[in-house]
UniProtKB/TrEMBL annotation:
It holds the Pfam family Adenine_glyco. PANTHER family: DNA-3-METHYLADENINE GLYCOSYLASE 1, DNA-3-METHYLADENINE GLYCOSYLASE I. InterPro entries: Adenine_glyco (IPR005019), DNA-3mA_glycosylase (IPR052891), DNA_glycosylase (IPR011257). It comes from Variovorax beijingensis. This is DNA-3-methyladenine glycosylase I.
Amino acid sequence: MGPTLLGPDGQPRCRWCAAAPEFLHYHDTEWGFPVTDDHRLFEKLCLEGFQSGLSWRTILVKRENFRKAFLGFDYRRVARLGERDVERLLGDSGIVRHRGKIEAVIHNARMAEVMVQREGSLASYFWRHEPNPAQLAEPQTASASAFSQALSKNLKKQGWKFVGPTTVYAFMQAVGLINDHAAGCVTRARIEQARRALALSIP
């Protein structure tokens, strides 16, 4: 079984995007495209943390509920949430009701505020950790890497939670820090083009 299959338009795509109806659009329009917006970076790291132990489909189908529950992942607003909000969120059936993960989002929002004060933006911090593509494993052959381990270690040192190497690797895949689309996937070239266009646009 090869790493790609033909999509509805006859073009090859990563095989995983056929595993659920929601995946094709996500694969074609989001996964791996470079993200520089701080709210979206914060959202993706939080959602990857929520995915820990679960399937990505579980998170993806609930994403709009997560966005509503966590104030559009505006980390400045999320940082103001307290224990009463945690209890409210634990009663929200539209999201994953896991106390540790909910508390981690609020805690990490406060860590994000500190990071932005120091770095200017989340984007400037995360994109400074972009790996050298020549040092990466073959696409979709790893669930963590030396790069995700280093970034995870750095985030934990700063106090962030639910940012283990596997979670961070999935985050790096999702936001385009690495292009992990299969070599024959039609979207891979589009992402490379987007990454080149990004070169001078990071704040």
